[in-house]
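== Sequence, structure tokens ==
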Amino acid sequence: MTDLTVIGGGLAGSEAAWQAAQSGLNVKLYEMRPSNPTGAHLSGDLAELVCSNSLGSNLTDRASGVLKNELRRMNSMLLDCAEETSLPAGAALAVDREKFAQLVTKKIEDHPKITLIREEVKTIPATPVIVASGPLTSANLTDSIAALSGEEHLFFFDAISPIVQAESINMEIAFRASRYDKGEQDEGDYINCPFTKDEYYHFVNELKSAERIELRSFEESIKSGVKAGHFFEGCLPVEIIAERGEDSLAFGPMRPVGLRDPRTGKRPYAIVQLRQDNLAGSLYNMVGFQTNLKFPEQRRVLRLIPGLENAEFERYGQMHRNTFISSPKLLRPTLQHITRDDLFFAGQITGVEGYMGNIATGLLAGINMTRLLNQQTPLTLPRETMLGALCHYITNASLKDFQPMKANFGILPPLFLTKKVGKREKGMAYSERAASELEKYLTEQEAAHE
């Protein structure tokens, strides 16, 4: 007997299926890959990371760190997998993307309560279901969601960064360091490619004039209310950033703060950072360097970066259409659809952005579906928690300027501090309040059902 259907084997769907199965539900998890590819994924593994391999900061005084602590308290399986397959990345949690996806896939396949089915789901079933089909939802399922909701979808374009073979990086120019390293430069977790002022401006000019990939027809047919070329501001292609001003990259993803070129002892004019992408250390991804240039142009222009003049690319950058629903009109903070108690949405399709946000909403959807089927009230987490604030944002934001939202302190209720404090102290205060409110709420819920 199947108690629950989960559509989508990405971060949110895998976490949702696991949470429900751990609570005793029989789960059918549908994933259409690899027989029906998305154009962005490379494998058929579950929870494949298609953009960065970083899951954000681990620091307790950062928003991403707060969300991770909440997921640890709520027993996230995917966070455990990420920590088991982690790579050196300073204060961030970065993973070997292949080992991470393989580990998640194995855990799902081995779970006695989960049946993994490699098929496309074309319509939303009338039985209990969690839709976690992601931003690359198939056209058939997209039509089914639109028919159910009666609302137009919103769209934005997302881009992924190139990956470089480590042995092709010129380490006579590039250097290892994390920002504000106090030790030896070669102990840093990142590889840094430093620019002089002339090198930077030459690179920017070539970047702006390079040929770009034409959007496919389905990506050009933007639905009403959304302008063509509607990029998500949190993940802009570098060529789009460059068009906003000559120094926009130098103050954005190429900002050189906290770094010194060991050849000169001075801060470079700009920097490109590369982060380890696999456990063997043979691949590095270009941090914040999403692009939609044609592949030959990427090879030409990116080789203008000092240290990458002979770079060999394991994967070129690319751009794809991401889809998310009108959550402020369609969802409750429990992640339930407004007209169907047993229909939940989770992950990027809800308007939550970032790997940890996807995992977190999958976790909450899995828990809440279990509670619903066990005749318990689904959880509405306190707004003082990061996950509660994310769910409140996506279900209460104004549709006029609704954009995907990552974990950040700006969506939390304000603090009322008795004295002025610095950024780190304020972050710690948010973190401590979130942990306290979550613990209090979960303890109350557990006590109510003993």
Q: What stands out?
A: The chain has two domains: 4-153+325-448, 159-321. The chain is about 30% helix and 15% strand. The CA atoms of residues 21 and 113 lie 5 Å apart.
